Amino acid sequence: MAKASRSPKTKAAKAQSSTPAKARAQAQLRSDNPMDWLFDNPLGPYPNFVFGILKQSYQGFSNTAVEFGGRKLRPVEGHTTDAPPDRPPITAYRHGTVLPEDAPDAFDDIELLLKAFDLAACPHAPALLAYVTLSFPDARRLHHCWEEARAFSVQAFARRRQLPVGLIQHCPGEAGSDNPVHVHLLVGPRRLDGIGFRGYVTDILMDEGQEVLHGEWLNFRKAWNEKT
Length: 228
Hints:
The protein is an alpha+beta fold. The protein is built from five helices and ten strands; from the N terminus they run H-E-E-E-E-H-E-H-E-H-E-E-E-E-H.
């Protein structure tokens, strides 16, 4: 006896009913750890140095600089919203920005700067920001780490490449961790001047950017230590 074929209407109804379940299953796969949203350390791990690129999407999930940066600004709460009255307090030990010479003063607000990164994103260029973490396992004072990371950001990004940077310092010991003090650098991928955002700086938006910036950091540290 021939098996009755399923009508197109039945097939369509079944496909439609399974779509929400499939979407829910996919949504549950997204990691809650923002480090999993990055394309990080393409050349392998370097000591006390992390490099990555936050792209507009990763493994099918959308990213924003605001959400990623919000997690770094709030390592305890780990969440952020767009509505200022509902925004939880920043819990990172210290935060700030480094700006190119003619950048608007309003970007002294790191969250406003992160929002500007999102608004300046172009469909043809996936990068929302370049990410660097500088760790200081031998730190004696928190402000020493901050001053060194900030000075490096001024030299390597604001002056050399005309790029804005959001800086976030974490002190893991506050949460009972032995991890070293570190500073996250969230680097805008486009040059910024008095007119606005310009072209993308491609030398740090590729795998080789890890080696480029790591080399610049080592050279900077050597000169910094000689001066101090």
